[in-house]
C-alpha cells in the first residue's frame, strides 16, 4: 500500500484548529468540487479501490453524502473523515498552524505503524492512549511544545522501534519502565527537553540502538549505556548533570559510531579500550573532569585522522596528543 498523501490525512483531526476547512467562506451549494476530487484521489491510492468506500461515487450522490464524510453545514466543505482505522502511516510535519492537543481520535487508528507529528505547534501532554497503538513501529512527536512527563506506558508498545520526543518541554524523570520494553529496545530520542532527576538504573536492562538524551538536566551515572556486550550505535548524553567514573566504561567495538558526553561532571580516565571501537567517527568528552593520558593507537576503520583537541578540551587534567604532553611524574 502506498503512503497516504498529507492533504488527505488533514481531514481526520477535528481537534486541531487547522482542521476546520472553509470557515469564513461564503455559503456553498453541494459538495466542493476540489474536496470531492481529493477524496476520489484518496480512494484511488489503494490497490483495491474498486472494493472499498463503495458509496464514494459521484454518479450516485455528492461527496457530503458519502459514507464517513463530514461537511460543514454552512460552506459544504469537507471537514472530517470517520472510520479511518485502516491507516498504517500518518505523517503531519512542519505545519505551524497545527496546534492544540494530540486528538483522542488517533487512538482509533489501531493499524498505525508510523505516527509522525513533528515540527508543529502541538501542546499539552503526550497522551497515554498512544500506548494502545500496539502495531506502532515509529513514534515521532519531536519539535513541538509538548509538556508534562514522558508516559511510562509507552514501554508497553510491543513492536516499537523508535521513540522520538525531542525538542519539546517535557519534564520529570525518564520512566523506570523504559528499562522494561516488552520487545526489542527502541531508539530512544529525548534530547532538548527539561527532563531531570536520576537516570533509572533499569535502562541497563535494554540494548538501545541509539540513546540521545542531550540538553536536559538528568543526573546520576550513565555507565549502564557503556557495555561491551551491547550493540548501541550512538550515545549522546551531553549537556546534563551526569557524574560517574568513566574509567569503568566498556565500549561497543563493532557498533559505536558516535559518543558525545560533553558538558557533564564525569571524572576518571579515558579507558584505553576505546581505541578498539573500530567504527567510531565522532567523539566529544570535553567540559568534564577527566584526567590522565589520552589513549593513542586508534584502530578506526573509517576515520583516517585521530580526533582533534576539540574532542578533549576543558577537562581537569587530560594530557597527551592532541593536548599538551603529560608532565613527567616526579
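^ Assign residues to that structure.
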Amino acid at each position: 500500500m502506498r503512503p497516504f498523501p498529507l492533504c488527505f490525512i488533514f481531514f481526520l483531526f477535528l481537534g486541531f484548529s487547522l482542521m476546520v476547512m472553509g470557515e469564513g467562506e461564503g455559503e456553498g451549494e453541494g459538495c466542493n468540487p476540489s474536496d470531492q476530487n481529493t477524496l476520489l484521489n484518496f480512494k484511488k491510492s489503494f490497490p483495491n479501490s474498486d472494493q472499498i468506500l463503495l458509496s464514494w461515487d459521484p454518479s450516485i450522490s455528492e461527496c457530503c453524502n458519502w459514507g464517513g464524510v463530514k461537511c460543514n453545514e454552512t460552506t459544504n466543505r469537507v471537514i472530517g473523515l470517520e472510520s479511518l482505522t485502516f491507516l498504517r502511516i500518518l505523517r503531519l510535519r512542519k505545519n505551524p498552524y497545527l496546534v492544540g492537543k494530540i486528538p483522542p481520535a488517533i487512538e482509533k487508528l489501531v493499524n498505525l505503524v508510523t505516527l509522525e507529528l513533528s515540527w508543529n505547534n502541538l501542546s499539552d501532554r503526550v497522551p497515554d492512549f498512544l500506548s494502545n497503538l500496539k502495531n506502532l513501529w515509529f513514534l515521532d512527536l519531536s519539535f513541538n511544545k509538548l509538556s508534562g512527563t514522558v508516559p511510562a506506558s509507552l514501554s508497553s508498545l510491543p513492536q516499537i522501534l523508535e521513540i522520538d520526543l525531542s525538542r519539546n518541554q517535557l519534564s520529570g524523570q525518564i520512566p523506570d519502565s523504559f528499562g522494561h520494553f516488552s520487545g526489542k529496545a527502541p531508539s530512544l530520542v529525548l534530547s532538548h527537553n527539561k527532563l531531570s532527576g536520576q537516570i533509572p538504573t533499569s535502562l541497563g536492562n535494554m540494548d538501545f540502538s541509539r540513546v540521545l538524551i542531550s540538553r536536559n538536566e538528568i543526573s546520576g551515572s550513565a555507565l549502564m549505556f557503556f557495555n561491551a556486550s551491547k550493540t548501541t550505535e550512538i550515545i549522546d548524553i551531553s549537556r546534563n548533570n551526569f557524574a560517574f567514573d568513566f574509567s569503568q566504561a566498556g565500549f561497543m567495538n563493532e557498533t559505536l559510531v558516535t559518543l558525545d558526553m560533553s558538558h557533564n561532571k564525569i571524572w576518571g580516565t579515558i579507558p584505553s579500550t576505546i581505541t578498539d571501537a573500530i567504527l567510531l567517527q565522532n567523539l566529544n568528552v570535553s567540559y568534564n573532569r577527566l584526567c590522565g593520558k589520552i589513549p593513542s593507537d586508534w584502530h578506526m576503520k573509517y576515520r583516517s585522522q585521530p580526533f582533534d583537541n576539540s574532542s578533549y578540551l576543558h577537562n581537569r587534567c587530560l594530557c597527551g596528543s592532541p593536548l599538551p604532553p603529560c608532565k613527567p611524574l616526579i
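Residues 33-44 form the longest helix (12 residues).
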